[in-house]
Amino acid sequence: MDSNTIEIIDELFRKGVIAFNECNFYDAHEYWEEIWTEYRLPDAKFIQGMIQLSVGCYHLTNKNLNGAQGLFKKCQNKFADFDGMQRGINVSEVKLSAKQAMDCVNEIENFTEFKWAIIPKLKIN
User: Full-prediction pTM beyond 0.90?
Assistant: First the structure.
């Protein structure tokens, strides 16, 4: 992969992080999906997990608890092979947040009961 392609991928990932942190979950998913579909990457499962996490959050904003629950569960499977830092993101924190989000969705009856504080602000180191 040439340096220009790496820069493009890094910029798309960064834009996804910014969108996610601004709670623009659909936009985050779009940036990360472009990486996942357009490039062959060794960490494609991690990118797919980020897509699923953001779409799960998007479903919450649309009060779709079942959709959110399913995606929070799926993204945990994608993150399972990763530890430490991945693309500057602390994977352990993301895994914990995804699990807490799924547990919260499992325990609530109404969207307004979701604890948004468990959704992390992603930090790129």
Answer: yes
